[in-house]
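G., the chain you wanted modeled:
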Amino acid sequence: MKKFLLMMLFIVCGYTAAMAGSDLKVVSGNAKFMKTAEGNAVLTFDWEGAKYDNREPLETKFTDLEHLKTVAWEGFSETFNEKSKNVKIVPDSERANAKYKFSMKVKNMDQYFKVMGFIPSNATKVWGTLTVIDLSTNTVIAVVEVNEVDGGANPSYDGTFSDCFEELAKQVTKLK
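Predicted structure as tokens:
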């Protein structure tokens, strides 16, 4: 019986590890740019045309979208700077010192209620395209497709936006 339970545990753990892939896919350019890149980067978000649940514009769903955009920028940049060794996100005011530009085109967002976990809470997912540009040559280094990055559960809407973009930043720093 012990052997059977141990075997089942290994199967479940193996399946979970195999299914825990990245929500990011480099569709063009250098997939290993994060391993070789060094310097500062500016981060911009393009929210134009973004939808909520692929149906309605984000502006109609979120009345405080401007505030949430700031929350998303702060969540991404803080986590990215903690996790990345060689590239740091700097404010747009320091663009002159930046070597790269990370441009995130948000296409779709969705919020749902996550019931799994200790405290059931709201969660946010994002879809879009992240383009990395070398500012010195104005060439595209990589285009990354963002497919349903889920930031986890948080009781506040600000927290769900922040968590979602923090998870996106973690995944970008791990690109291989």
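Confidence is low (pLDDT under 50) at residues 4-20.

Shout if anything looks off.
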